[in-house]
Amino acid sequence: MEILPVGAAGSNCGAEYWMPNDELEQDRLDLQHAVFNELLQGKLGLAPVENPQSILDLGTGTGIWAIEAATLWPSAEVLGTDLSPIQPDYVPANCHFEVDDAEDDWIYSRPFDYIHLRLMFHTFKDHTRVIRAAYDNLVPGGYVEFQDYYCRLGCVDDTMRGTALERWTHMYVEGGRRLGRDMLAPKRYRQWLTEAGFEDVTEEKRAIPGNAWPRGKEAKMMGVWQMTNFLDGLQAVSMRIFTKGLGMAPEEVELFLVDVRKDIKNHGIHFYFPTYIVYGRKPFGKETEREGEATEQGAES
């Protein structure tokens, strides 16, 4: 599977995109949504939003989350943005899509009640810039929510120790760091949201099984889906980071991934994806005014 900048894959966007956007990748993204649907027990998010009227889905991918949000909240206007225009043509009337880069200046005609981001940890060079933009583009009382992997794979015992999969997770984090991407950013979302001025910042940690090792029926099913998701995306998520970030030859990467795939399929390795769901509320009007007054008083003194 060739990894191309979005422009080379037919997008009108000139920004660089680290993943393919072909039909196979779109199927994988929809499977990924099914995994999160199971993880969140059928919910689109955990933030306590009530009847939102304006919703922004950043990095919308195939648009499946935005489409379901538009169906769940039929009175809301839902906007999904992505670097690549791969969304379907036939969607609910209250759902729209635009090609946009979240790290560019945000220019929207109205503020949002709810801003949603899923699996964007590897996308941003500066997460705090995006968080500040989200704050500025929310109505008072509006919520932003991140749903992301923490990309140092976990294991419930020592069965991952010394495996190619364990080496892969450390190499992936280091390669991303060398390319200016913080693969461990989700651990800092709570801090960054608080520093940006969000109130009621909440962090929930959950685990997605890496394959079918769990005994419980629902967890095992989620693990099967996640294993397929991981295997289908492994070459794409690894190749650029390992070649550009770690200086490996493509052939060397492919050879290494043979062993990683064996480990992913091995039910004797009890690994999981640590997953962070972090959300915060923009203060209501009076709270925001007090913040402004405090800032002015501090400047005067």
UniProtKB/TrEMBL annotation:
<protein>
    <recommendedName>
        <fullName>S-adenosyl-L-methionine-dependent methyltransferase</fullName>
    </recommendedName>
</protein>
<dbReference type="InterPro" id="IPR029063">
    <property type="entry name" value="SAM-dependent_MTases_sf"/>
</dbReference>
<dbReference type="Pfam" id="PF13489">
    <property type="entry name" value="Methyltransf_23"/>
</dbReference>
<comment type="similarity">
    <text>Belongs to the methyltransferase superfamily. LaeA methyltransferase family.</text>
</comment>
<dbReference type="GO" id="GO:0008168">
    <property type="term" value="F:methyltransferase activity"/>
</dbReference>
